[in-house]
Amino acid sequence: MTRKVKIFSGSSSRYLAEKIAIAFGQSLGDVKVTRFSDGEFQTSFEETVRGADVFIVQSTFAPTDNLFELLLMIDAAKRASANNIIAVMPYFGFARQDRKDKPRVAIGAKLVSNLLSAAGVTRIMTMDLHADQIQGFFEIPVDHLFGSAVFLEYIKSLDLPDLTIAAPDTGGSKRANAYAKYLDAEMVICYKQRKKANEVSNMTLIGDVKGKDIVLVDDIVDTAGTLTKAAQLMMDSGARSVRAMITHPVLSGPAYQRIESSVLTELITTDTIPSKESSKITVLSVADVFSDVMQKLIENKSISSHFIAI
């Protein structure tokens, strides 16, 4: 018996969900969000989902309404007797809160995983989690995809003569090392110290960048403070050019202004989160990656070919 598949989108990710649905070969399902005057909202599927494998595409970037809308859609699908409910979360919000890094703080990523499970999701599909261990917060399958699926071909196409991969901080050294090995390139690391969140107090460079074409790799760019400071440090140390390759363009506060006025040649990112147009920002779509994994999931085929470079 042929499996019945339906793809729906939350409000914040429709721009991406439409591209995923087209690549998958079908149109988006009809979902309605009713908003009340006090800010409360309700989601409803305007077509049957009984017995269907339901994919709900929604990144959970700010505001938290996006997360709660996803939870409501999962609950609605469960109560409408969907067979499977797969949350396609290109960007998994609250992933930076993956542990207790000081006393009396919440572990936000674990709380989100509990909420999704309680709502009734049967599978999670996401990309470049801030911390790999978040997969272990779930008791359901998690397909953790990598931005390298779209980044690697682009970097190769640039044909940079003296390519060197850089990590903007020690936390990103594992990711940078994997890219460096795959591309047969050297690697350098920036060591940073923070006094508080989103503010770097000191940064030093580990490695030689003189005459090199640097590509900084990371999962998230938020205020772009660390990124632009790292790029400046590279250029001051003799680098020929500096690019950045970041999966999730959170880009809050002064981020766009910092990027435009920085020494960065280019910021290469994806459409897991919508971003504004900028002369320095190149956006690569992950729609085909998610569509292909969704198709393989329906056909019970291996998706290990997508787990490259990281």
Helix content: 25-40%
Averaged pLDDT, please?
93
Strand arrangement, major sheet: 10-9-8-11-12-13-14
Strand fraction:
25-35%
Oligomer: single chain
Rounded to the nearest angstrom, the distance between the terminal CA atoms is 37 Å
Question: What is the N-to-C succession of helices and strands?
Answer: EHEEEHEHEEHEHEEEHEHEEH
User: If helices are DSSP runs of H or I spanning 4 or more residues, what is the number of helices?
Assistant: 8
pLDDT < 50 stretches: none
What do you see in this structure?
By secondary structure, the chain is α/β, with parallel strands linked by helices. It has helices at 14-24, 65-79, 108-119, 148-158, 173-183, 225-236, 255-260, 287-298, and strands at 5-9, 31-35, 41-45, 53-57, 84-89, 123-127, 142-145, 163-167, 186-196, 199-206, 213-221, 241-249, 266-270, 281-284. The strands form three sheets. A seven-stranded mixed beta sheet has the order 10-9-8-11-12-13-14, sandwiched between helices.
